[in-house]
Amino acid sequence: MSDQPVWMSQPEDHDYDAARQYLSLLAKPEIAQAVADRLRTGTLMTFKAKDLLRSSRLPLLHEENAHVKKDLKKVAEGKQLSPVLLVRGKIGEYPLTVADGYHRICASYHLDENTDIPCVMVDLL
Fold this sequence. Notes:
It is a single chain. The protein is α/β, with parallel strands linked by helices and 125 residues long. It has a single domain, classed as Conserved hypothetical protein from pyrococcus furiosus pfu- 392566-001, ParB domain, CATH 3.90.1530. 42% of the residues lie in helices and 26% in strands. The chain has 5 helices and 6 strands. A 4-stranded mixed β-sheet has the order 2-6-4-5, with helices on both faces. Strands 1-3 form a two-stranded parallel ribbon. A hairpin with a 2-residue loop joins strand 4 and strand 5. The model has no long low-confidence stretch (mean pLDDT 94).
């Protein structure tokens, strides 16, 4: 049983589609698609869970949230989590948009707010 996340080396394909779908709620579909395409070629970097929550201004989801609970279970079983997809730049009122992986950030925070989380981040067009 593990108490720290094990991360995949790259996000899964479906994560990019989820990011595009989410971003299309915040920006025109062609912008969402362009940003999602750029995420596919972005570089992996690492940020602390606490800093991702602060910079995105998102609240910490409770441990009993279904998706957070599922990711905490994966961590306990030693299963890999997919890196988070981020967009830096103001979409609406937020300077950092978590395009995919919010629940993984929250699960990691519950384990340790200083957990290093691999992320692919691109700047808004």
